[in-house]
Design a protein that fits this description.
Structural class: alpha/beta
Order of helices and strands: HHEHEHEHEHEHEHEHEHEHEHHHEEEEEE
Shape: globular
Strand content: 15-25%
Strand order of the largest sheet: 2-1-3-4-5
Low-confidence stretches: 1-23
Number of helices: 14
Helix content: 40-55%
Number of strands: 16
Largest sheet: 5 strands, parallel
Distance between the termini: 75 Å
Oligomer: single chain
Length: about 450
Amino acid sequence: MSNDSRDKLAPPEIGRRNFLTGVPAAGLAFGGATLAGLNAASAQSSEPIPIGQMASLTGPLAVDGIEHKNGFDMACEEINAAGGILGRMLEPVTIDSGNQTAEEVTAAVRQLIDKHGVHAIINGYNVGANQAEYDPVADAGIIYIHYNTAIGHHEVFKSDPERYFGIFMADPAEYYYGVGLPVMLDALRKGGVWKPENNKIALITGSLAYSGVISNAIRETAPKYGFEVSFEEVVPVPTTEWGAVLSKIRAEAPAVIVNTHFYPGDIAQCQVQFMQDPTNSLVYYQYGPLLKAFSDIAGEAARGVLTSSVIGILPDAIGTAFREQYWAKFGEKAEADPGASTYSETYHYAIAAAMAGGTGEPGNDAQNRKIAENMKRFVYRAPFGTLRYEPEFNAAIPYPTVSADPSLAMPHLLYQIKDPAAAVPKKLIFPAPYGEAEFETPPWFK
């Protein structure tokens, strides 16, 4: 095929010589240039490619769901500016998954597949579905990528890898949060920056399965690092009344208080109520303090709080460039961390599909198997670190808890809230080589 013929197959406004025009700098850094090169070599038809997403646009998790949609849409725009996937533009379709129940999520999946005929579904998280959506996806034979952070994904995938070939979990399972936390606490203690008065951990568990898995892993792992779970209580989700459980914890005066409930508004209230009569305890909340909503609600009570994530934007050149690009588009109040998850995986999918010769519609599992193989072979450097799928269970693994090689695993990041009023209240304190700040004794310590 001649160069002129290839040019005629590209969309009119994006010829082979000018398709980079209008692609944001961040898009080039995160895969736009790679796609542009692939598109130049092998452009296809101009028929759009429907790509789906289920996101909580309403309900208590909309603070993340809106950003999941934003990151997804932003990536699609940039990919289209680079020529789409082999000349075909992406057409994003997002369905509200509300409270993320199994019924809501499976209904959204069926609508995306049956009504819109999506070639892939690229999600943030839907933690309440418990893999109920896997079978409709497997029946359609399409690619489904999510950040559900669920050990249940491993179990379902390993039960029938051929059937679930196209389902990927783009972050490590929640189990590793529980395994990793004692490792992090031990590092602070060994480093001499924290001298606990005892070895007790008080454990508050949200009633969702996600929280329960993390708490179970903490209980199992803590003794290996010289800690003891001396108190446990399960709280209903959602909840904003923490007085009773905090009263019991104050009697224990533990070295660490761990709360695995993760709704930012709920746990912000927990911190405010804790500060009414604090103990000399480190306070760790699961995930929620990553979001500015936590610090906005808790105010100065948030200062000194610990939290962690496996999809936090790194304070390096790639992470900073993405955050600036995201804020330029959505404003500085936007939460760039959850946006980075769907943004990155949309690029990863698009490059894998272009390398495979195009996308696959529902029923075209032969083409989608080619894409799936490319996704496992092609390691993608996201704003939150290395995105690589372990072939055994089509999911990411964490560094340093499972892999000592950060080039093969996604970093499990420990943060401390430093300035609740700042645009980014949290600072990364662990692990090396990613840390940007030192741990500080929380201001409530006497």
